[in-house]
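retry 2 of 3: previous attempt timed out while embedding calcium ion. Reduced batch size to 1 and resubmitted. Inputs unchanged:
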Amino acid sequence: MTLRVLVVEDDREIRSMMQSSLAVEGFSVQTAVSVSEAGALLQHDLPDILVLDLGLPDGDGMVLVQAVRKRHNLPILVVSARHQEAQKIQLLDAGADDYLTKPFSVGELLARIRVALRHRGTTLAAAVTLHELDDLRIDLTERLVQSRNQILHLTPTEFKLLACLVRNAGRVVTHRQLLTDVWGAEFTEHTHYLRLYMGQLRAKIEVDPAEPRHLLTETGIGYRLATV
Ligand code: CA
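retry 2 succeeded.
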């Protein structure tokens, strides 16, 4: 099956770089250069994934994230030169699956697209319940966490936090999402809970908790469970 991607980007050089590298990977690529053009295409025909720049000549790509997410489940990957954490959090909370900060490599773009597709695909089919990378093995169904061939003993809260990251493996999960999932919607400001429990998880899981291999910090935004 050929996967269709819609690339929304007004910068001609970046657009053609994405178009050609995605075509080489076997994607069928459509492009748009503005919010209005993308909006018209999306009304007509839905792609399998949306790759979206934010700074567009006739508006902010953010409006497309909100409009698409209201009605559709397709993966949305934002590519942007914006670096502010607040904006990235806003995007992720609005329903973007992930973001790439410009400049990025083709390899990075493809890896993030694969993760976003897998995530959306698996939430439609079966939820992710098994995570394996290097010496770490997490089986959510069996509630079993193993590292370096040892079974690790986690508290219920540590396990809940880890499970949330496993279900989103490879994607950044915002502080708000994690706090809501693990403690509840009234705890979204309690980021110190996360620092505490993430410290405990790292102490149990990581070979060197100061240089985490698995539980990665996205400074000011959230955490990501490494998949590569
Ligand atoms: Ca732009």
